[in-house]
Amino acid sequence: MLTDQNWVLSVGVFLPLAGVLVMMFIPKSDELLVKFVGLLAALATLGIGIYTLAEFDYGQAEKLQFAVNTSWIDVIHSRYIVGLDGLSLPLYILSMVITVLVMIYSWNHVPSPGNPKAFYMLMLVLQVGMAGTFVAQDLVLFFVFFEIVLLPMYFMIGVWGGENRQYASLKFFLYTMFGSAFMLVAFLALFFKTGGTTFSMTQLADLVQQKYAEGGLTSTTMNLIFAGMALGFAVKVPMFPFHTWLPDAHTQAPTQGSVILAAILLKLGTYGFVRIALPILPQAAKVFAPWIGLLSVIGIIYGAWCCLAQTDMKRLIAFSSVAHMGFVMLGISTLTSYGINAAMFGMVAHGLITGMLFFVAGSVKDRYHTLEIKRLSGMLKQVPKLGWIMGFAAMASLGLPGLAGFWGEFPAILSAFEPAKGNVDLAIGPLSVNLYRTFMIIASIGTVFAAGYLLWLYQRTAFGTPTAEFAGLGADADDQDDHAHGAHDAHEGAEDTGHADGHHEKLHDVGIFEWIAWAPMLAAIVFFGVYPQAMFKVFDPAVSLISKKFGG
Amino acid sequence: MHLLLSPMQQTDKLISPSVNWGSLTPLLVLLGAGLVLLVGAALSARGWAKGLYATLTAAAAVAAGVLQFVLWNSTVHHGPKSLVGEALVVDGPSLFIGISICAALLLAALVTDDYLRREDIDSPEVYGLYLMAALGGLVMAASNDLIVLFLGLEVLSIALYVLAASHRKRIESQEAGLKYFILGGFSSAFFLYGVALVYGATGTTRLRGPESIKTALALTVETDKHRALLVVGVALLLVGLAFKVAAVPFHSWTPDVYQGAPTPVTGFMASAAKAAAFGALLRSVVLSMPELRDDWRPAIWVLAILTLVIGSTLAVVQTNVKRMLAYSSISHAGFILVGIEAAAHGGESGDRGIASVLFYVLTYAVLVSGTFAVSTLVGRSGDGAHGLDSYRGLGRQRPVLALALAVFLLAQAGVPLTSGFVAKFSVITAAADASSYAIAIIAMLAAVIGAFLYLRIIVSMFLEDGDAEGERVSIPFGTGAAIGISVAFTLVVGFFPGWLLELARDAATRLY
């Protein structure tokens, strides 16, 4: 039975704002209270999220639940339409979980130049934008949330980032805005060309088919509108030629920013394809699918090669995102239920795994004050727990069966074996099987590269003996002492992040806040690796609804 | 009042038109306040108490604004009407733009008070000129006759020339005034020549209503003979008004004048003068010559695209913040021209276009007033610290001020939940509705280029290390109030745009 609790989503989306409001009145110097209120707001939001999980009717996961459809800005025909179906639910919850975990991690890892008040407030605003994007069912509302996300991330990179932060944050902002420019015009064109009365996604999807059947909407128009949307989403994903902002943003962003960026923000793009571009304009999607597939496999190979060439750990992980999102987009481009399911799973899995890798990278940077791969060595000796966690995340990332990464990557490749067969009713032809099988072969070569760069990274940083400059600083030097002062050291580590290279305090292993922040992600990677059905069954009904249009 | 008679009505005996004094009150209030200021201050030997000039000006602005609201109410109930023998009209667009001008005047008065005292050049003339300029702007926006429009234009322009030069201690200010005067004189001449040619072709200078240019064009029999004359005339009108709104290629005065003029005056120019000029453009060409739209709409299209692209591109390479804002105001003019282009299509999408222009004009007037208010403060005494360096570290030194400027800049960049986003959105919507997709996409790309500029200033304030050069920025009460009002308006409209959009739409459909 569908629940009629229509307050759930609005509260879930906007609750963090209440936290922001409260925090405004707390003096900046009272850092503990600021962090506490921020975390509390995020936890309360997650509480609503868990309630949503419990109340969600999994039997009708293809339907929009908790739906609200009320007037918003009547003059421009935009309505406040929110709803949650199987497509959005996992991503919606993931955004809440990640925000809480990142806040816990930030408890003693507020990056230089400090100011936890602003940092926590930005994370809460970011959470509003992310959650809002996943539940919006009105194109204008979607666009607003999609854009809100930009600003907090811009400031997060720009203020708390690395040395090159200004360049990176500007590039991030302008690239995404460039994409959204086309996206907005495409949305408006869609509205006016179909003669819609609202910007409701479902209404517009119906109208497009109606108009197309009547001949009021030519395929050229539909293709152009699709191209505009696709450009906006592709920049965010990011797909191959539009990816150049990503390595810079990731490298310069603070750990927390990188984690959120990788875990959630990139998914806004792929989610946009699945939620908006494909269902509303299926005919055009079929036309563009081979091109999207082509760019995806280029991204897979190119991303992997770039990874092999990187000397910076964080940059390497960033490029691995390009490759992984290539798999996700390849799955989407097959337009089959199998492929899109894999893509959706891949989004969540990539969010957990790459988020985890960025966490590890951040902690490495905290300890060693460098992420240069050649200066790092023998982590397993010096900080064994951190080393093992990194190994675990790397294995998950390269798609080891039994861990979550596998279920995003492997089915995505497999789905290219048999792309969408087409749908006569909607005048959609089949996709070229030969072309997609070629994609499949190239993509599977990509997995070999993925294993290559990740294992090589792991081998260079975790194995071997510590380099001279860090020798003797390890946690192995006197284990007992470390246990006694674990919490104290962790605190010190946060304050010392600004220190110049050359002066090293003792290395300490994974601290308590790191454990709290990471444990749920590690557990989820294993859980969804062993029992992927838990998530597939949520996606599948909604995905089938979309893939049906393409005959799959 | 017989000067206001249109030539068509001239007979042997002058017939005075009936004057609806009630509907003229907003103009009279501004005129009266201006005269009181100038005469009163001249008569009192020692000058008035501190802040009294500004208080009077602000009060007049508020009163004129409120009176226009009252008129709006009666327009809603009794429909739009014309005054003084059809020379002026009271209708939706005229009142909406009039209120925008009054808002700009209020903000300018608040900022100028502190500025003049800081620069130690406090005097009543500046306020008198502000009031006259606003009066001229109101006349422009409400005129239904090209001659009256020209009168308004001149009252506005001459006041602005003097205002631009009003900082007697700064040579740049004098230069700006002179430059503005010479180029402005040219543009007025173009406009006047255009009026003459249009009169020659149509036999009237009245814009709408009976025996007007609009009806003459609709009949076409007579005007077809003089078509060339008419088209050249319209082109000249466009040149004159494009100069006032600072559209490319008639923009070259803008950076220099904006940079040289006293900063509060720059804010007033960018808000009130632009609003008035767009009101005049709507009235004189878009609304009065729809039959001729195939001839002039391409010109607007080209103007809009040039203005968008060149304005935002050149803004990026500037290092002086006032110059940056000058180019950014050019690019905003381009955005409004996109709305004008949509309005030119007529019909329902045309109404949408007019509404988007009105909405943009009001929100931009408030935004830009707020922006220049902050810039006035950062300029510090001497009004010279306008380099990007002067903003460095402002976020640490004056967090609230920096935050306010960030709000203005982000709104100008078109970030959601600010008035700027809604304004851009409504303009782009109007363009999409009119199927002007090319122009819509170019506008959005120009916004992206423009965003770089705004972010540069924000980067300077928050992200760059080091302290701002020179003395600590002080925030006096009046300017602080102006900034506060502008921020509140920007955010309220950003979060709840519905009511204002509706108001703009109602105004657009209540045409005389």
TrEMBL record, chain A:
A Gene Ontology term for the protein's cellular component: membrane
All residue ranges annotated as the NADH:quinone oxidoreductase/Mrp antiporter transmembrane domain in the record: 136-418
UniProt biased composition (Basic and acidic residues): 482-501
UniProt-listed PANTHER family: NADH-UBIQUINONE OXIDOREDUCTASE CHAIN 4
Entry keyword Cell inner membrane: no
Family that this chain belongs to: Belongs to the complex I subunit 4 family.
Chain positions covered by the region annotation Disordered: 480-501
Entry's Gene Ontology molecular function annotations: NADH dehydrogenase (ubiquinone) activity; NADH dehydrogenase activity; ubiquinone binding
Keyword tags: Membrane, NAD, Translocase, Transmembrane, Transmembrane helix
Transmembrane segments: 6-26, 33-54, 89-107, 119-136, 142-160, 172-192, 224-246, 287-309, 316-336, 342-364, 385-407, 439-458, 512-531
Membrane topology listed for this record: Multi-pass membrane protein
Broad class of where this protein is predominantly found: membrane
Domain NADH:ubiquinone oxidoreductase chain 4 N-terminal as annotated: residue spans: 72-128
GO biological process, one term: ATP synthesis coupled electron transport
Full protein name: Unannotated protein
Subcellular location per the Swiss-Prot or TrEMBL entry: Membrane
UniProtKB/TrEMBL annotation, chain B:
InterPro entries referenced in this protein's UniProt entry, alphabetically: NADH-Q_OxRdtase_suN/2, ND/Mrp_TM
Keywords attached to this entry: Membrane, Transmembrane, Transmembrane helix
A GO term, aspect molecular function: NADH dehydrogenase (ubiquinone) activity
Signal peptide residue numbers: none
Keyword Kinase in record: no
Record bears the keyword Transmembrane: yes
Membrane topology per record: Multi-pass membrane protein
Domain NADH:quinone oxidoreductase/Mrp antiporter transmembrane: 143-449
Main localisation: membrane
One Pfam family of this chain: Proton_antipo_M
PANTHER family linked: NADH DEHYDROGENASE
Name recorded for this polypeptide: Unannotated protein
Species for this entry: freshwater metagenome
